[in-house]
Amino acid sequence: RAQPRVFSGIQPSGVPTLGNYLGAIRNWVPMQDTHEAIFCVVDLHAITVWQDPKELARQTREMAAALIACGLDPKRCTLFLQSHVHAHTRLAWIMNCVARLGWLNRMTQFKDKAGKDKEAASAGLYVYPNLMAADILTYHATLVPVGDDQRQHLELANDIAQKFNHDYGVEFFPRIEPLIQGVAARVMSLRDGTKKMSKSDPSDQSRINLTDDHDSIAQKIRKARTDAEPLPGHASGLENRPEARNLVGILAAITGTLPENVLREHEGKGFGAFKEVLVAALVAHLDPIRKEMARLLDDPATLDAQLRLGADRAEAVAAPICARAEEIVGF
Ligand code: ADP
Ligand code: NA
């Protein structure tokens, strides 16, 4: 193989947000040239919590369009829908039988996502990390760009891979390394600077979606929580000011600079004025993406054909690896 193989997935569990863009999607774009890049809209993962079928279908297509509009080129990467490639579920079953209950019980994300009534959570949500392990390992991918929230799942995937290799006496699944890119842009909620901006949090509508036009971006940024202090000249002046730090971080990330530079330029400004600068920068950056998304969604036949082609390419890699795993197991 000429280039290392990287795998990443994103759930169609809502409209992609500015957080998904700055924290994940945008960083995937340059990988197309340096890696054999496999990107997947993980609709199987999405139904670990209830999804209205029509909404799921719509959001899945919308997510795929967003990824392309953000710069993933179906010719330069493998872009597809998880449910189209059956190796994911076939290998996930084997992973279910390799992973130990004790390992799953330690996953903090299950505890967060299941909420108060754990007994009412789906079994799928519980074994979600096993499917994630299968997603990566059925491509023998060795690199996975992850946010902090997924680190524990990646370690579990490695534990599963090692146990499989050990139990069956093979050196079949490679080790997976997390790919950590530059300064991790973590975008926080505009309503509460201590919570992340999330596409899948129904209780918080303050998020900026990639489908938002000028007016809704302006409205959301103007409503964003801040404090009465002006912008400091240095990052140390943002300590204990999570909302202020978040807005500075967003402007830095969207304009491709460091928070220090943003602060140097806007020192002493009030947030009223700063928010207008931020709105202009966001609109300038996101408007072409929004328009390209709309154009792609206007031509569903072309989009579907691109995703089918992506699934064929993914299948060609995944199916033989999955088949070999099944053979090792004794099927
Ligand atoms: P969400 O909470 O929006 O449903 P996912 O869990 O599907 O997000 O994550 C998709 C990708 O986007 C992951 O790589 C994750 O690390 C990244 N991501 C999600 N929210 C944010 C955020 N607020 N800031 C930065 N990156 C994020
Ligand atoms: Na998630």
Encode the helix/strand succession as letters.
EHHEHHEHHHHEHEHHHHH
Helix content: 40-55%
* Spatial extent as radius of gyration: 21 Å
Distance linking N and C termini? 28 Å
Q: What is the CATH architecture annotation of the largest domain?
A: 3-Layer(aba) Sandwich
- Which cofactors or ions or other ligands sit in this model? adenosine-5'-diphosphate, sodium ion
Instruction: Please give the count of helices.
Output: 14
Query: Quick one: how many beta strands?
Result: 5
Rough outline? globular
Please identify the structural class as seen in this structure.
Answer: mainly alpha
Explained architecture:
With 331 residues, the chain is mainly alpha-helical. The protein folds into two domains: 5-185 and 300-329, 3-Layer(aba) Sandwich (Rossmann fold), CATH 3.40.50.620; 214-294, Orthogonal Bundle (Tyrosyl-Transfer RNA Synthetase), CATH 1.10.240.10. 55% of the residues lie in helices and 7% in strands. It has 14 helices and five strands. The protein has helices at 18-28, 31-34, 43-46, 53-69, 87-98, 101-105, 108-114, 123-137, 151-168, 214-223, 242-255, 259-266, 271-297, 300-329; strands at residues 5-10, 36-41, 78-81, 143-145, 177-179. Strands 1-2-3 form a three-stranded parallel beta sheet. A two-stranded parallel ribbon has the order 4-5. β4, α9 and β5 (177-179) form a beta-alpha-beta unit. α5 runs parallel beside α14 (300-329), α8 crosses α9 and α11 packs across α12. The longest helix has 30 residues, at 300-329. It is globular, with a radius of gyration of 21 Å. The chain starts with a strand and ends with a helix. Adenosine-5'-diphosphate is lined by residues 10-11, 13-14, 17, 19-20, 22-24, 147, 149, 185-187, 196-200. Residues 193-215 are annotated as: Disordered. Belongs to the class-I aminoacyl-tRNA synthetase family. Its main location: cytoplasm. A motif ('KMSKS' region) lies at residues 196-200. Pfam families: tRNA-synt_1b (PF00579).
